[in-house]
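Write out the 3D structure for:
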Amino acid sequence: METTKVRLRFLSHPSICGIILPNNLFQKLQLRHRQKITITLGKKEVVATALQDKRNPESNIVKMTTLLQNELSIPHGGLINLKQEGNSLRIGPAIGIVTTGIRRDPKQPIGPRTSFFHKLLQAQEGKGVFYFIFSPHDVDWRNNQVSAWFFTQKQKGRLSLAKNADGHARCHIRPDSIPLCGKA
């Protein structure tokens, strides 16, 4: 299946790890109601129950329970990419940006460069990509996890992600304040 852009929303349901898909997408993916399917974001994989949204059969809205959202560390809803890969349903991609100078200050987690990164990541909103920022010190090599920052227009916060999601870039700030970014 080719990549499909859908709008992601969250449903507060603490006991079911599920994803609700409209009929048209359900048929395209050849799923059965209440079928178990692996949902992936980066390197994180979670088995969830696929449910059919019969109220909005032609919609492009995919709903996910908050339990699944938390298991996959999805920071926000909105436009996302969805792709079937074998028996898995991949969302994302999740792309991490490695930088230095991250602080424990929630108002300015990257010090004076916070507004630069905030604007950089806001420019990518609606592209179906989850961007995260972290420093080398945020990597937990033993548990294969990264504690990373995300930014949207309405919020910023910290999440724990699977290390080496879909890729990361290193950003170095030169003295003349022009960032140099390259794929690691």
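Confidence is low (pLDDT under 50) at residues 165-184.
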